[in-house]
Amino acid sequence: xxxxxxxxxxxxxxxxxxxxxxxxxxxxxxxxxxxxxxxxxxxxxxxxxxxxxxxxxxxxxxxxxxxxxxxxxxxxxxxxxxxxxxxxxxxxxxxxxxxxxxxxxxxxxxxxxxxxxxxxxxxxxxxxxxxxxxxxxxxxxxxxxxxxxxxxxxxxxxxxxxxxxxxxxxxxxxxxxxxxxxxxxxxxxxxxxxxxxxxxxxxxxxxxxxxxxxxxxxxxxxxxxxxxxxxxxxxxxxxxxxxxxxxxxxxxxxxxxxxxxxxxxxxxxxxxxxxxxxxxxxxxxxxxxxxxxxxxxxxxxxxxxxxxxxxxxxxxxxxxxxxxxxxxxxxxxxxxxxxxxxxxxxxxxxxxxxxxxxxxxxxxxxxxxxxxxxxxxxxxxxxxxxxxxxxxxxxxxxxxxxxxxxxxxxxxxxxxxxxxxxxxxxxxxxxxxxxxxxxxxxxxxxxxxxxxxxxxxxxxxxxxxxxxxxxxxxxxxxxxxxxxxxxxxxxxxxxxxxxxxxxxxxxxxxxxxxxxxxxxxxxxxxxxxxxxxxxxxxxxxxxxxxxxxxxxxxxxxxxxxxxxxxxxxxxxxxxxxxxxxxxxxxxxxxxxxxxxxxxxxxxxxxxxxxxxxxxxxxxxxxxxxxxxxxxxxxxxxxxxxxxxxxxxxxxxxxxxxxxxxxxxxxxxxxxxxxxxxxxxxxxxxxxxxxxxxxxxxxxxxxxxxxxxxxxxxxxxxxxxxxxxxxxxxxxxxxxxxxxxxxxxxxxxxxxxxxxxxxxxxxxxxxxxxxxxxxxxxxxxxxxxxxxxxxxxxxxxxxxxxxxxxxxxxxxxxxxxxxxxxxxxxxxxxxxxxxxxxxxxxxxxxxxxxxxxxxxxxxxxxxxxxxxxxxxxxxxxxxxxxxxxxxxxxxxxxxxxxxxxxxxxxxxxxxxxxxxxxxxxxxxxxxxxxxxxxxxxxxxxxxxxxxxxxxxxxxxxxxxxxxxxxxxxxxxxxxxxxxxxxxxxxxxxxxxxxxxxxxxxxxxxxxxxxxxxxxxxxxxxxxxxxxxxxxxxxxxxxxxxxxxxxxxxxxxxxxxxxxxxxxx
Length: 1063
Hints:
By secondary structure, the protein is α/β, with parallel strands linked by helices. It contains 29 helices and 17 strands. Helix content is 41%, strand content 7%. The strands form four sheets. The chain has a ten-stranded mixed beta sheet, sandwiched between helices. Strands 12-17-14 form a three-stranded mixed beta sheet. The chain is globular and about 135 Å long. Helix 11 (548-563) packs across helix 17 (709-715).
């Protein structure tokens, strides 16, 4: 795929395919690499020079003191072997010979020069090398069995008889000796690492011969004491490693770090991650309090049920029902947090294993998905920053492909992405040159930090200022596009070459694909390659159900499988940028870990947000969920999928079960071997090829994945990879096919494959299906947040966000995928099922919560209460329950690190969202699922200030605000009425009043952030909110006083005549 190929638009059903060329004036090709040399050696004054890879030679990795290679080798060989500036010992670099003291340096994989010894030390080390050599005994007709090493620095020496264990073998002629010099074995010999013998002339005609059977093996080096010790040590290590692997096979393949130590090996072979269990001093008291709380709850309900309030039976009954529901909700929320864990990654081990010096990187390819719909609601500048942070990520550029899904087919998004691709050619090399964080320019330049800190290059200040000017110009161009897009021409948008924009009709347009950055035309200003950037807009036609975001994500899965087919995928919302450039490496520490990687379906990162005021009054950070609940789930089967910031294994999207055990995986892989061979036919002639997988014929695969032979072929490749022999034109044609609007008809897309349809929260449903197939997920919390997004900070937008989440949960609860009855007999663990049940039923808590928050006002207005007069024993159970509730929360905060202010904000917004958004979600979900009525709660904006966080006080009228406002007013009225009644009735009435006032203040305190957001600044509350709320509260209060339904009706005292005539 060439970046200059132009926009490809077409419809598979209509057999249309159009290529619109991009007209770019003055576009220059890749620039040559900059000359990196030029530094002067501070010892001899010569040029420092370059390495064989073209990079500047650096002798000291600590201070980068400029020294040329000649002086570096001389200092190591003849000098004191330390850097003249920082006095750090020189480490052996690739291409340099070993010297004394290098025995402990095992991180240099340099077979060619490992023993390229100097002539001064060669003679002294001959006997030692010969005694310790690991030798090859091979067949005379198999030259490839022997290693071949280059010894260009060795000078020819006379032929020396071969040594065996330090002794001459006199009776065996050299030409019949079995010991083979290291330089022999032919040009094609690519053998294992051995210690060479002291033969220096590669022209010697010595051929490998078979051993003399009459000789003792000790004559050839076998059977010696050194050999026996070496073999015994090797066997012990292998046995210990095999025992560890066998033990881990019965533990879900999950290395927890508590088992036996790994055998001594180089760091590159050690696990890439490990579990960090919560210290027992923190988790054990927490579990004990949970058990005690369960017992106290049991005794509490025993008292509540056995002691009804006869004169206010209805109030008592409603309160008991609500409390039972709250207890069940607490159990569903609490027990999935029984096994919380932390995790630690080792990025250095990942590099040592998969990025060896001088070799191509072995890290896996990753396809990154960014989804956007309406550029007027999701600003293009925000999307551009997300794309720029992806292109500048710290990962091999040839392993990254970024796909941007424009589900609104907006020409504004297309042109903004074109500008972004041009600016990326300047931004990406700047980020990598100075290693800046974050790599989204808007947030990098907005940082209030000392940008000179830890920057050693003198050119940084100058280049940063120049880059900031470039970014300001880039913003001007993007904003000009946005301003232009506000007025749509009558004839529709027109591209630069005069062609009408194919997406002028948002509901009826062909599929479009544009490769902006790729194999050609994708170089930065330094001439280095950039990651691939692809624009995708799926086809839309009237009469088709396009399934909103889930359908767009499935289209990206298919088009990426055709074009690049990376084995892993990262999905991001358009407003979530990469805040940690090593985030992808963090996820690969789990995905590519041989101990746990094969069963991991996705790695979920926590959501962190910018632009939130320090008080976070609406709990936008949601730290209780991300730092407590998700850690608890990670100790069971893994966290739930939250919609963004998640790295997936592509195979887990295809509806396959997770591998059960190591033996079963081997059998499964062997069954894959045959259909993989059939890929040759697919690559040669993409159409008309039949393939099989796990015994499934082509017809079943087409019914499952759709009628695309290229995509079906990609599903057979567990490790990913695009079809090499297919032409770019045929791949683009097939990509247009898989994003056609009718491709998913009569397939399993959205049912068993890809993102699952049926809910506006497709993320929870998709992760739930994966866990039901036996996969596990991982929760990764790097020290620097991996991704950051934008959160709605005003009350109205926050409530509508919560409404959408709750509506999705209600839809799942009323569907066939409800965790209460779906997925039994699969791989879903019972504690994980409890967490999914809690994630789907929590909106139903709004009904008892609304009733419970109304009870204090009712009690204050009527003079009755929900409990009878408490005895000493009953008071003990109430007090114990309150102590257990607070103790559980305190211990949770202790092991999770969540602050008490964050915990309290979460408790407050649980009440605010419960009596507003959750309640409307239940009503809307019932109407939508049962009645087929799709209702929407619209939002209209009201202007805010221009200050920072001004939108926090911006107010928007919405129906969601009426219930909590009414609750506030009636509880305040109840408090006033109760206090007035106590004042009128005297001292004895104050005692019973305190319990009712505590109940009412509990509601008011929890709704306080709502009250503060309602009032805003300068008391600018919409009149309609106040009128409706006061009206409802007044009607409720008047009707209650008039009807008085919860009080027993008394006939009054019996009057008798006293016998006196009062007249």
